[in-house]
Amino acid sequence: MKPSYWPSVIQAAIIVAVVTTVVGLGLVYYVAGSEPSMGVMMISGLTIPITCLIGLIGGILATRSYAKAFDITFPIGTGAQIGLFTGIIAAVVGGIIGQIWNLVDPSLMERFADTMIGAFEMNDQIPEAQKDEIITSMEEGFEDQSSMGGILKGIAINAGVLGFVNLLSGMVGAKIFASEEE
Amino acid sequence: MNLGLEFQNRALYTIVFVGSFFLVIIALGPGLFGNPSIPYVSFQFEAFHFLCHQDPLRSFTLNNSQMAVCARCIGIYGAFFTGVILMPFLVLIKKVKFRYYFRFLIGTIILNFIDVLGNQFEFWTNTNESRFLLGSLFGLSSAILLSNEFFKKLNTED
Predict the structure, then answer these.
(1) What is the mean pLDDT of residues B94-110?
(2) Quick check: B46 contacting A, CB < 8 Å?
(3) Does A125 touch chain B (CB under 8 A)?
(4) What ipTM does the predicted assembly reach?
(5) What SS3 class is residue B107?
(6) Which of B16, B52, B58 shows the shortest C-beta gap to A168?
(7) What gap in Å lies between CA B50 and CA A89, rounded to an integer?
């Protein structure tokens, strides 16, 4: 019988959830603490491009950890399962950390929303009619995101996308770290 | 009709094919449906906020709306999906050993890393087009690394 891959899955999911949530919170604090301007929409100085794709590595980390811990090989289908569960758990854990942080700093998302809406109001490149429509959508969107339904919807969307991309990286991880051939 | 290919792991390939297709559709952002992009609010942006910095300056637009991911990421997802479509043809054309595919993947990761660092430390300025191109190489190399898991050429030496 093959050993359980759950310890590797949970370990990798927690790493991904913590890193992505910390980076995400850093961005939210940066925007929330800024004056409303188009500059806050252009955040490359803070989120350096290297942060891109951190969420993808869960599948690689989990398959590597599982293969090395037990010195075993397994097919890419198992790698896909490991990656899928890693991504889903990372999204759920990330969502929970985000909600705990909301209890620590309840006004954070409100400050963030105000800055973002203020930045859009100052943008004179968007026609007024369209701008009003976008701002109304933003206000509704931020309100929806803070409701229980919105939080669960956000976690579900993230679980779907993070689950799938980690399914892909889990297959790649299985191929690299746990393949029998060559 | 025998194309000289053995198709294996069919269910997984179907999941990867359909999932990659929808990933690209979501990554293209609200502009694909003629809607304005609203960062942090549109579900497409929410879907990728763990995966991409979504910087407007580093993203392409579609129908005047910012895509949900940056130029490098749309290159990765788009090329990965293209690679998934091309897998059977790649296997038919030539049998390549895993280690060469692996070296190609590592090479593209290093290229992207060098590009990011070079730009960050102002040795050069990359563009959305160059980011897209390098991201595409990474996406394509990831897909073709898996090609032998889904398709095998018949009547050839292993």
Answers:
(1) 89
(2) yes
(3) no
(4) 0.90
(5) helix
(6) B16
(7) 13
